[in-house]
């Protein structure tokens, strides 16, 4: 298994059963789909996993399933963000017990956004988790701290355990350029976010990986491979064909992701806990058209009803 993070690293959604409980069997199916699609790794939990709506025991149980289901075929990045430093350390220690050393951590907003405060936070986390390989997640406000790139450079220079930055503030491109131009040698790269809606701009600026949602993983893998092979025309063609669906995904979020995974026969329902906009017949028809344009087959509705 590669020690570096490059390529497509999708954030796994959290599947729920019809009674509202987390669905461990479906989580295994999601991992198998991701790995068979050629992804370079998987991420769980993240924003796209409805992490704020998971109990600690659910979060741990599902992470254990992800670790077991990947069976070391691809790296697992454990989202270890939490409301307090202690929460984060506990998440990190549990991931460590599962053999996961990659931790993606967003600094809690309560600590502030000054370089000094963020450095102190990550210094404490690093001391408690000395074996962790940390990805600093810089999410946009209001959800994230929206750290400027100058602050990011100060933080990663001071805390050598941070070896990647997931940069998804808007616009992410100039921030990625600044971080890569000014980075210390300890920082191995910058990973793009934003649902892969800006992936070509991020790659052109030197981003080494992307963390989109999972619903069109193979299309993102094909795009990534074409780009790395120098076939930028093919990468752009794939990118353009993904945009209608990704534009909808920005609005309907994990509800769209789960709907698509259900239509593809991987999930049995599209139940979400997070408050998200409902899909109506017009938006569903738009999704179906986008899947056709991408050459992605859907399971016939009758078959879906039988498997639900």
Topology:
Elements (H helix, E strand, L loop, with lengths): L6 E2 L15 H13 L5 E3 L11 H15 L5 E4 L5 H13 L4 E4 L9 H14 L4 E6 L10 H10 L3 E6 L4 H11 L6 E4 L6 H6 L4 E2 L6 H12 L3 H32 L17 H13 L7 H7 L1
Parallel strand pairs: 1-8, 2-3, 3-4, 4-5, 5-6, 6-7, 7-8
Helix pairs in contact: 1-2, 4-5, 5-6, 8-9, 9-10
CATH architecture: Alpha-Beta Barrel
**Total number of β-strand segments?**
8
- Mean pLDDT, to the nearest integer, reads 94
SSE pattern, N- to C-terminal: EHEHEHEHEHEHEHEHHHH
In percent terms, what proportion of residues is strand?
5-15%
The stretches of 5 or more residues where confidence is low (pLDDT under 50) are 304-308
Distance between the termini: 36 Å
SS-derived structural category: alpha/beta
Instruction: State the domain count.
Output: 1
The Cα radius of gyration reads 19 Å
Shape: globular
Strand order of the largest sheet: 1-8-7-6-5-4-3-2
Q: Characterize the main sheet.
A: 8 strands, parallel
| Helix segment tally | 11
Describe it.
By secondary structure, the chain is an alpha/beta fold. The protein has helices spanning 24-36, 56-70, 85-97, 115-128, 149-158, 172-182, 199-204, 217-228, 232-263, 281-293, 301-307; strands at 7-8, 42-44, 76-79, 102-105, 133-138, 162-167, 189-192, 209-210. It has one domain: Aldolase class I (TIM Barrel, Alpha-Beta Barrel). It has eleven helices and eight strands. Strands 1-8-7-6-5-4-3-2 form an eight-stranded parallel beta sheet. It is globular, with a radius of gyration of 19 Å.
């Amino acid at each position: 298994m590669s020690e570096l993070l490059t390529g497509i690293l999708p954030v796994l959604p959290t599947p729920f059963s019809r009674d509202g409980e987390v669905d461990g069997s479906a989580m295994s199916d999601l991992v198998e789909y991701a790995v068979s699609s050629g992804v370079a790794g998987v991420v769980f939990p993240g924003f796209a996993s409805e992490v704020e709506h998971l109990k600690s025991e659910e979060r741990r149980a599902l992470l254990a399933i992800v670790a077991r289901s990947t069976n070391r075929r691809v790296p697992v990045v454990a989202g270890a963000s939490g409301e307090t430093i202690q929460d984060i350390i506990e998440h990190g220690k549990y991931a460590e017990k599962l053999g996961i050393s990659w931790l993606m951590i967003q600094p809690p907003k309560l600590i502030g956004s000054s370089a000094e405060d963020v450095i102190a936070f990550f210094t404490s986390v690093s001391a408690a988790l000395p074996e962790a390989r940390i990805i600093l997640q810089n999410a946009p406000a209001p959800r994230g701290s929206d750290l400027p790139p100058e602050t990011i450079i100060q933080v990663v220079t001071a805390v050598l355990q941070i070896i990647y930055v997931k940069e998804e503030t808007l616009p992410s491109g100039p921030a990625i350029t600044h971080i890569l131009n000014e980075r210390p040698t300890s920082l191995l790269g910058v990973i793009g976010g934003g649902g892969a809606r800006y992936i070509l701009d991020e790659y052109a600026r030197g981003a080494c990986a992307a963390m989109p949602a999972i619903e069109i993983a193979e299309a993102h893998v094909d795009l990534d491979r074409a780009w790395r092979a120098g076939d930028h025309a093919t990468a752009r063609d794939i990118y353009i064909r993904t945009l209608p669906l990704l534009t909808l995904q920005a609005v309907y979020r994990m509800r769209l992701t789960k709907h698509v995974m259900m239509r593809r026969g991987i999930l049995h329902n599209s139940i979400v806990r997070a408050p998200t906009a409902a899909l109506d017949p017009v938006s569903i028809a738009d999704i179906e058209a986008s899947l056709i344009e991408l050459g992605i087959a859907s399971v016939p509705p009758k078959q879906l009803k039988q498997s639900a």
